[in-house]
Every structure is written in C-alpha cells, then in structure tokens.
Amino acid sequence: MEILNYINGEWTKPSVKEYFDVLNPATGGVVARTPLGGFAEVDAAARAAAEAFPAWRRTPVQDRVQYLFTLRNLMRANHDEIARLITEECGKTFEEAKAEMVRAFENVEVAAGMPMMMKGEIVEDIAPGIDEMMIRQPVGVCATIAPFNFPGMIPFWYLPYALAAGNTYVIKPSEKVPMTMQFIFKLIEQVGFPKGVVNLVNGAKDTVDAILQHPTIRAITFVGSTNVAKYIYSQGALHGKRVIAQGGAKNPVIVLPDADMDMATRIIADSAFGCAGQRCLAVSLAVTVGEARNTFSEMICDAASTRVVGYGLDAGVQMGPLINSASRDRVEQLIGLGEREGAVATVDGRGTRVKGYEGGNFVRPTILSNVRAGTEIAQTEIFGPVLSLMHVNTIEDAIQLVNSGAYGNQASLFTSSGSAARKFRYEAEAGNIGINIGVAAPMAFFPFSGWKESFFGDLHGQGMDAVEFFTQKKVVVERWPKEWSRKF
Length: 488
Ligand code: NAD
Prior knowledge:
- By secondary structure, the protein is α/β, with parallel strands linked by helices.
- The protein has 2 domains: 5-247 and 454-476, Aldehyde Dehydrogenase, Chain A, domain 1 (3-Layer(aba) Sandwich); 251-435, Aldehyde Dehydrogenase, Chain A, domain 2.
- It contains 16 helices and 22 strands.
- The chain has a 7-stranded mixed sheet, sandwiched between helices. Strands 9-8-7-10-11-21 form a 6-stranded mixed sheet, sandwiched between helices.
- Helix 1 packs across helix 8 (205-213), helix 2 (61-77) runs antiparallel to helix 4 and helix 10 (261-273) packs across helix 11 (292-305).
- It starts with a strand and ends in a 9-residue tail after the last strand.
- Nicotinamide-adenine-dinucleotide is lined by residues 145-150, 172, 174-175, 204-205, 208, 223-225, 228, 231, 246-249, 280, 381, 383, 409, 450, 454.
C-alpha cells in the first residue's frame, strides 16, 4: 500500500528521502513504506487545521456530530477490511483486530453525545443583577501521536471528542503501522469533512518533534512507551501545550486461594497472551497467595503450552507474532535475563518457528516461574507473551508487591471474597482495576486511566475527561443595569 499524507482534504506525497519499511510481522514481507517527514509536512497540516478551525468551530455542535455518525457507519461497513489491515501490519489475530475496532466505534458513539456533554453552567444573581456563566469552547488545533499496538483504536480515544467539541486535528500514526489509518482516512475523505478539519501526517521522531514545537498546535495526546511519554509531556509543556501522555506498563494480577481457578486461568491466559502480550493492559506478573500456588501454576502452564500460534489471518490461530524481529530478540533476551536471575522457564517460547511463516517474529507463550521480588525481570515491561509467576503468603504481602512496582496502568485480583475485593480496590495503586477481570479496559464513557510511570498528565482520554481536555473554560460575569432597559 502506498502511504501518503492527507492534508487540507488532499492526498499528498511528501518530498522525503527516507522511508521506513513496514513488514508483515508474520511473513516478514514488506507491505508498505512509511515516508519519514518532518517540519514541512507538520507545518502544512497544522496550517490547514488552523485555517479550518474558525468555520468548524462555528458549525453547530449538532451538525458537527452528523459527520461522526457517518464516519462510524462507514467504519462499521468496512470493519473486516480494517481488521485485515491491522492483522497484516500489526500481527494480532483477525478476531483481536475486529474487537479493537469495536472500541473505536464505541468512542465515536459516545462523542456523538457532545451536544449534551459540552454544555456550560450559569448562576444568576451572584450579586444583585449580575450573572456568571461558564462556557466551554474548543482549544484549537490538536494532535495525536499513536503507538503501534492498536493502530485503529487508540486515535479514537481522542479524535471524535476533539472534532465534536469544535477542534481541528492532526494524527501521526506509528511508522510501524501506517496502513490502518491510511485506510480510515479514505473513509474520512468519504465523510466529507470540510478541508483541513482532519489531517494525517506520517513519520517518526522528526515528525513528533515538529508537532511538539509547532506554535499552532495547542494540545497533544500521546500513547506509547514511558520514556517517550516523559519526553512528550515535558517538551509539550515547555512549548505551552496541554498534554495527555500515556506510557508503558507492567500489570500484576493477584490470585487468591478462593478464586474460581478455571475462570482465573482462562481469563489470565487471555490477558497475558492475547495480542501476543503487546497490550498495555496485558497481565504480566501473576502473584499467587497461599494455596493458590500449585493449582494455578499447573493450570496456567497448560493454558500457555496449548495456545495455537500462527498468522492471525489463518483460521483457528489464537496468538500472532511480535511486531518485529527486534521485539522478538528483546523478549527472548529478557526470558534469558529472568533465568539468570533465578527464574525457571517452565514453558519456554523461545526459538519458535511456525511452518509456512519462517520469516515471522513468533515467540510462543512463556511462563517464568519462581520470579523473585526486586529482580529486573520482575520490574521491566516485557511487552511480549511472557507471564512471570511470584508467590507470597498473604493478601497484604501481595498488595505491597503490586504497589512496589514503578508502573500503575492496571492491577487485577481473582477471588470470591467481597471483602478481599474491596480491600484490593481501595489499596491497589493503579489507574485501572480488574476484579475477576483480566483486561480492565474502560468503556468509552469512562476515562482510560493510568497512574505512576504509566501516565503523565491529569485528564485522560475517553468520556468526560476527553471533553474537559478538548475544551477550554471561559467564565463570563455579566451585568445589565435595569435603568438601561427599554420599555417595549
Ligand atoms: P513508542 O514509544 O516506541 O512509540 C510511540 C510513538 O512515539 C510512535 O508514534 C513513534 O513514532 C513515536 N516515537 C518513538 N520514539 C520516539 C522518540 N524518541 N521521540 C519522539 N517520538 C518517538 O511505543 P510503541 O512501541 O509504538 O508502543 C508500545 C508501548 O506503548 C508500550 O510501552 C505500551 O505499554 C505502550 N502503550 C501504552 C498504552 C496506555 O494506555 N498506557 C496503550 C498502548 C500502548
């Protein structure tokens, strides 16, 4: 697929010298080449968005959301085609890719409620004859910098809210997965947004830096690894922008002895190995308490070793490859590091070869047993299909272990005890909590939270937080003296 930018309602071929080869993670074949642009492309997109802003802002909100209804219907009509592209460039299975897009549709649907959500407030007579009101107005030109692992969903945590609230937009997808947004922008073109309202700029670090520094861009949302999230947060702030920066994760799950072990095993395996572990809400550390240890360890090893690994477009495949060979090597090296630190690879996915897909970046599900607290493997984000097992004697020790981690994206508990669940919900230091849930992904009408090293900012994507982020509050204090009133 040819990768172009979409600026001011036109498909443009950037005049760049460098390209990034996009490889199908299962076959190793080149499927696209991402142009690595820089300031000129971002500048053109930001200018187009700035020019489109005054008229878009004046378009009544109930008319703005009509564009979103059309976009949602077009995306639903092309659900399979979008999912196929996600599998081709990102590696997850077709079913996972379809499920990803359902969350994108949900966000468009929630944002279509903007006429209700962006209403202001008014208090009459704050002093005799004086009224005070708060009005929400759009911020201006906003931008999203997206990661590789959810090419279709993540931009929709922000884009529909921003547009519905009257902002104009620039999206930069990950250079590793440009095809999904390329296709979605074909749909955006069909929707017929006014020129410049939504723009697509492809590229990598230079493009990101241009977005960070561009004086016209007022707000940035970022999702990706923690180091880059910190960079975006600090550079965005330095250049006077609002920033949401979501970072990496190392999500723990506690399994209590009273948990339903069949259910816990099935759900934890899906969480750890779904999307090949390349999910910011993937469980990566299972902490068993007391007698849960033996049963859970045995059952989770079975679940790991029986998972069907292969190309996500082939029938019956439950887990696809990692995004690229560098990721595969990194995950395999981390398994080795775990062993050197005293863990045992009870199920070892290194050296996986899938027949017919010898060029793929496959690592089978892996279980690292006897992982010790304080080791590097217990603290590092692996971002692959590796579940580390740890053991403690009490729920207090387990919660302390959970809270000792640097990240705070998600923490889960499996139990049949209400009081244990309440204690955990109250004490666990993470932004998304799962009780008997493996991937506690918030629905579109809740904020997608995140704490500690997993999140930099205050407002989140989705729901009312997104409305807050993409609007600025104006407070008006108004006096109309009686003596000015005409007699009618
Ligand atoms: P990444 O940080 O490598 O890239 C994300 C984006 O930043 C891409 O668009 C990329 O072009 C850009 N980028 C990369 N390096 C940069 C640099 N040095 N300077 C400026 N821009 C740069 O992340 P990724 O590998 O695409 O995604 C995986 C990571 O994202 C994992 O750490 C995962 O946990 C995290 N993630 C977090 C969430 C969340 O909700 N918190 C969701 C999805 C993924």
